[in-house]
Amino acid sequence: MPFLESLRGYQSRVETALAHWLPAADIQPDHLHQAMRYAVLGDGKRIRPVLVYASGEAFGVDLAVLDGPACAVEMIHAYSLIHDDLPVMDDDDLRRGKPTVHKAFDEATAILVGDALQSLAYQLLSGNQEVVNGKTQLQMLNVLSEAAGAAGMVGGQSLDNEAIGHDLTLSELETMHSLKTGALIRSSVVLGGMSHAQASESQLGALTQYASHIGLAFQIQDDILDETSDTETLGKPQGSDRQQNKPTYVSLLGLDQARDKATELADQAIASLSGFPGSADRLRELAFYVVERIH
């Protein structure tokens, strides 16, 4: 199956699963539920759930087994975007081509939507007993909770806030983004692998290495697009990092070197999968997609 067709299949599948598991908009508290569906459903690259599916398929895992983890990581991602957009954080008005949640509803609702999505993500994983055994289920919860917390995404966001207006070294910038962006991407790839009962520690280690490389490559491409694309294509304000005086790979390396760095990381990600058969080709293709995407 051609890569783009496969990608659209993953995206369509997770959209259907998300629509199923999100609370119905006409059930009380309906205002909250409407906002949850507004925040999650619709346009989105769905890179994290796509990685869950592609990683699981590298082991021959049935897609139905992967729906829960795929939705869980997307809900965590959506919650992080909602809170990141708030006036007290980045104060953004546009996300995925439409008003941010606090603009479409209000700030209090946006906070509650983020809280509810985070809880629902863990509920999905903890209610997944029919497809993974209890030990694996507990390990998967541990992986996602660590990736989402102070040792991962939230910690990275804290470093990002502290970095505004300051110059960072390349090492400091990579540390920040390996937490803020990379941690959830790593957990997505690992959760897909963990969904296969016979996945070995060495295989999961290779997946982690792969994901570490594409996590940084993804962020570099985000920084590049923030400088070179436009608001309509991105679905969010173009140039916002520069306006907020945030350190980026482009501000540190320059545009050409940033592009070279992203390509180098994609190549390293693919090399990490050298021990995997052709069933991991979707992961290999995703490494190229991450650095070639236009939004």
Explain what this protein looks like in three dimensions.
Helix 7 runs antiparallel to helix 10 (182-194). With 295 residues, this protein is mostly helical. It starts with a helix and ends with a helix. It is built from 16 helices and two strands. It has a two-stranded antiparallel sheet. The protein has one domain (3-292): Farnesyl Diphosphate Synthase (Orthogonal Bundle), CATH 1.10.600. The protein has helices spanning 3-21, 30-40, 47-57, 63-84, 101-104, 107-126, 134-148, 153-163, 170-180, 182-194, 201-228, 231-234, 240-243, 249-253, 255-272, 281-292; strands at residues 94-95, 98-99.
Helix-strand pattern: HHHHEEHHHHHHHHHHHH
Counting H and I runs of at least 4 residues, what is the number of helices?
A: 16
Helix content: over 70%
Percent strand:
under 5%
Report the structural category.
Answer: mainly alpha
Q: What's the CATH C level?
A: Mainly Alpha
Shape: globular
Which CATH architecture would you pick? Orthogonal Bundle
Distance between the first and last residues' Cα: 23 Å
How many E strands?
2
In the CATH hierarchy, the third-tier topology is known as Farnesyl Diphosphate Synthase
CATH superfamily: Farnesyl Diphosphate Synthase
Mean pLDDT: 93
Q: Say what oligomer this is.
A: single chain
Low-pLDDT parts are none
The biggest sheet amounts to: 2 strands, antiparallel
Strand order of the largest sheet: 1-2
Q: What value does the Rg take, in angstroms?
A: 18 Å
Number of domains: 1
